[in-house]
Amino acid sequence: MPTRRSTPRTLALAAVIAGAWAFGACRKPAERAEPKEAASAAPAAASAPAARTPPADLESPPADAQKTKSGLITKVLKPGTGELRPTLHDSVRVRYAGWKTSGKLIDSSSKRGGPQTFQLRAVIPGWAEGLQQMRVGERRRLWIPHQLGYLRPGRPPSTVVFDIELLEIMEGEARAAPPDVAAVPADATRSDSGLAYKVLAAGVGEQRPRAWDRVALGYAGWTPDGEMFEVSSSATFDVSAVMPGWSEALQRMTVGERVRLWIPEALAYQGRSGPPRGMVVFELELRSIERRPEPPSAPADVAAAPKNAKRTPSGLAYRLVTKGSGGERPGDGARVRLHYSGWKPDGTLLESSLLQGKPRTVPLRSVMPGWREGLQLMSVGDRALFWIPEPLAYAGAAGAPAGMLVYELELIEILN
Questions:
Q1: Domain 310-415: which CATH number of 3.30.230.80, 3.90.470.10, 3.10.50.40, 3.10.310.10
Q2: Could you tell me which CATH number the domain at 189-290 has?
Q3: Do the Cβ atoms of 106 and 100 come closer than 8 Å?
Q4: Of 144, 128, 147, nearest to 9 (Cα)?
Q5: 10-residue block means of pLDDT along the chain (416 residues)?
Q6: Quick one: three-class SS letters along 20-55?
């Protein structure tokens, strides 16, 4: 086993994700599922019976709380014992409860029947970072900003608060570093991007993942000094949602193939706080490919609203792409079922329900102002394109896409 560190890295499986705002790219909490789906990544509690009572400091962390470089705020409620802290290879057994800052309970171990067990690599980044600071027996409160928590389509960023009690650490297995981990060997192949790779075992067939497909794989990652910082015997990712070096390599692979990658920083974590800096080395084994629908192309006028677009006093611009049957429009308190796709002005796809193969249901009061205003201009069957200025989108929130965003919304049903 690698030596435990008193100051653990804050990686978590989601840190593999290069497009940090790729909304549909992950599923487990580390993968930023919505709270109600957070069976594998949410949770924590100060003590099980009292966990349902919201803490008084949900909205304002106390002065003695500690803030990390990532934006996570924590406070020790009860010290633990010993020196052992969990790493990303490990699983933990915890009691927990989580709330919105409004006091609404998101999830708790008591609702799930008692203490729960999670793999650290499968939880939201805020959990992974916080748990790696804890000792057995410790209770800690975490104020988790949206970029370390749950990213939900079209919804404003929000902080969630968890109380976690660490009951047990179940140590995972470490893998020995490859002999050539320190530098790219002479027999490795280099691509134009700077990625270097070696095929360790050939795959079968001719099918290779496309950028929009989903893959199942096993992997392990090391720093050049031989320290393993991430490992999984089985994980699932969208190819478009992982770091550039992974995405490039996966699209060259066939099922059963195993490769070793030397990934320069520009194609890895790009200097972000928490994950390893500089070159990293990964071994990937491709287990299966799930063919996904091809992503929607960016509209021709994605860069700026055309002259024939309508504009509202708030600054929202829109044009109708397809007209529905007319009639009722959703009110401010309605829930709606819709398909959506969103792009940056340069045509980069941010998210799309079409990639998930099913529409989403959202309350209008919980979505970004541009969505809320735009949807109230639509009738069932309408499909419209919206140019949403930053104040009506994510308003400069850290970790969220900046500037104007473009969304195509198709209103399927109004659920009052």
A1: 3.10.50.40
A2: 3.10.50.40
A3: yes
A4: 128
A5: 27 32 28 32 36 84 94 95 85 92 90 87 89 95 90 73 93 83 96 96 94 90 90 82 93 96 95 86 95 90 96 97 92 94 92 88 93 97 97 85 95 92
A6: CCCCCCCCCHHHCCCHHHCCCCCCCCCCCHHHHCCC
